[in-house]
Every structure is written in C-alpha cells, then in structure tokens.
Amino acid sequence: MQCLITNENEWLPLAEAWIKLIPPGFRxxxxxxxxxxxxxxxxxxLRQWGIVEAIKSPTYTLVETxxxxxxxxxxxxxxxxxxxxxxxxxGLELYFNQEAIVIVEWPEKGTEVLPAADMLCTLSYHxxxxxxxxxxxxxxxxxxxxxxxxx
Length: 151
Known about the structure:
Blueprint: E1 2-5, H1 11-19, E2 27-32, H2 38-48, E3 63-68, E4 71-77, H3 86-89, H4 92-95, E5 101-105, E6 119-126, E7 129-136, H5 139-150
Parallel strand pairs: 2-5, 2-6, 4-5
Antiparallel strand pairs: 1-7, 3-4, 6-7
C-alpha cells in the first residue's frame, strides 16, 4: 500500500481508518529519514485512539505507554539507541504481548532483538508532501492492508 500525504491535516483521517483495523498485539514499525513524519503519524494514531494528554516522542526514554479505549499502546523511538542490546535492559519482552499494540520508530536500530513486525511503513519525502509505503509481514498485517486498500 502506498499513499501520498500532502498536508498535516490528512494524517488524522488516515489514522482514524487505521485504528479501526489494528488488532490488539499488532506490531507497527515506522522507518524513514529524520523528519519524514514517523512521530506525526504516531501522534495522529494516538489522538484517534483518544489520547488527549501531551504525546511526547520517546527519543530519550525509548518508550512511552498509553492506555485508551481499553487498549494499551507502547510507543518506542529507537533513534538514540546505541546498541540493540539496550532493549533487553528495558524488559522488551514485557511490551510485546498479545494485548498491547506496539509502534516502533527507527526499528532498524533494534533489528537484532525486536520481534518481527506485522507491518513496516516507510515514510519518505515527496515534492508534494510525504509518501507512506506499507508492507505486511504477517497474516494480521496483510488483513489490515487489504482492508485499508478497500477504503
């Protein structure tokens, strides 16, 4: 799946469609250059889940946890990770479970220890905005993509 986002106002309706389809236990990985929109997309998803408090990028804390609509969402930002092994000190296995949705920015920094993604979305610069390109890596990822493409 690929779509062009031409302005920031388009993130929220896109996120609204996504949150209706992402099941508990889903692992969404976001990759792309610095400033390409990974955190903006994550914030849009969290807003649509009903998070009203400040949503900060976990660049220094590595992970922020939110709860909305009886759903736990863990947001990782691995940009400043020095070694994938640092994730073991966080108790990584506690975050990746059947109930929680996990969103990981900069997953390439943790490839040796991160569980496989259900979906990887790459954000890139485009002359008219940002290009979002998503690939599914699991049956639930494929199901989400199929349903998104029908919308």
